[in-house]
Amino acid sequence: MQFKDIVGQRDIINRLTAVVDSGRVSHAQQFVGDERDGSLQLAWAYLQYLCCEHRQHYENGELRADSCGECPNCKKIAQLMHPDLHFIFPNPPNGSTSVSSEDYMKEFRDFMLSTHALGTLNDFNDTLSGDVKTSIIRETDAANIVRVLGMKPYEGGWRMVVVWNADRMNAAAANELLKTLEEPLPQTLIILVDNYDKRLLPTIESRVQTVKMKAESEKWKDVDNPEFAGLLVGWLRMLFKLKMKELSAQVDKMAAMNREQQKLFLQYAMKVMRDCFLNTTAGVECHLGSGDEKFDSQFPKMITTNNIELIQSAFDDAIFAIERNAYAKIVMMELSFRISKALKKR
After folding, report:
1. Which of 126, 144, 145, 313 has its CA 20 to 30 A from that of 247?
2. Which ranges in 60-170 belong to alpha helices (H)?
3. Those residues with Cβ within 8 angstroms of residue 160's Cβ, 6 or more apart along the chain or in another chain
4. Cβ atoms 266, 319 nearer than 8 A
5. Residue 167 exposure: Cα atoms within 13 Å on the Cβ side
6. What is the model's pTM?
7. What distance in Å separates the CA atoms of residue 90 and residue 164, rounded to the nearest whole number?
8. 192-212 pLDDT, tens digit each
9. Do 277 and 308 form a contact (C-beta atoms < 8 A)?
10. CATH fold of 3-213, please?
């Protein structure tokens, strides 16, 4: 997971990369946000950047830096197979008094990879046929945090633990975690990922550095332009046909906007693609607003785990080019070809 794969949150990402580059990484951090706003994605990408052997820095564009995505650490973390990265999460009882996240680790990795870390606790429990009301983080998991953080790193770097939905720790687990936060070991990092309605112990909150995600409504307030919906759907239809005369006319409409509107349109299109992906992977409602019920119901199925990264990368590159005053029609035409190709990889 790279920062470029996360929609929005650029200001927060840039602050985090600056802190990592400065070497002032806090041993305990808390990422707080709504369930589907990418807080778990952010933790994932942050740890990949932290461990990256060849960090990339950019002089222009929305991102100041990102992980390379190619070094051994990046590849291991991207596949959630890094030996020094551990996840703790609420899990349902299975009849054993020692049930822990380790019992469901394969299912959790599959869930993370299939949803790009945008699924909810309800979604995860559905994969386990469990009841979210009985899914908690127990003292067994808290003891495992102490154990893994006390081990020698396999890769010689950081020992990292992400606690997803940390607000669902029971009292015994919370108290055990508190002891770890009070006496941190060198090169250890705990990230708590919580919702806005968190119920963490005040003593824990006082010992973590909190990062608050931008709310979903605020993140997209500037891009929800009603005129964009018709323009986007008309463009998407052209991508299936790829008749150059019609596509060129559609691209002309996109290129005729001023640069700020072009950028907002591309961000709006990225939001729609993200919503379509969530519809495919997690059943979240997606409204394209084309006026054609068949198109609105069928198009989201085109956005899958096989092409979402290609689509995200294409939009990121287009936005970057627009910001650098590239010729808009060429940018939009190249984007059209890339998205058309990606849609065929569903």
Report:
1. 313
2. 72-78, 105-115, 121-128, 139-149
3. 47, 50, 51, 84, 85, 86, 188, 189, 190, 191
4. yes
5. 15
6. 0.67
7. 7
8. 988 765 667 777 877 888 888
9. yes
10. Rossmann fold (3.40.50)
